[in-house]
User: Fold FND10 protein from Steatornis caripensis.
Amino acid sequence: SLVANVLRNGSVLLQWGPPRPAAGLRGFALNCSWDGTYTRFPCDSVELGAACRDYLLPEAHGSVRYRLCLQPRYAPPRPAPPAQCVEFRVEPAAMRDIVVAMTAVGGSICVMLVFICLLVAYITENLMSPALA
Assistant:
């Protein structure tokens, strides 16, 4: 029941339901891995309390594939059940901003070129007309 909600600001909200059975639950262990060359991710081996049902990852990197696993921790002698894992990828926000900026600049250049062409046409038509003989 582990769900990763990717938010618009680049953060990720992890949510999960209570494990079955809940008796003897001492907490959760959250482990992370990622597919990226130079990415550092600050949630490796995070210990969470037994009442915790969500966790916010404030800064996830764009274009990186994340795999987060949540494992319930029980009091001994009960063995730990297998971890639940979720995979996700965050859309790169910076790339979206660059595309918007380039579109705006490109539109402005097109408008300026239209004005220049109209000005050249006006000058050619009105100021450079041949003298009547």
User: Anything to note?
Assistant: The two ends are 91 Å apart (CA to CA). The chain has two domains: 2-91, 93-132. The longest strand covers residues 25-35.
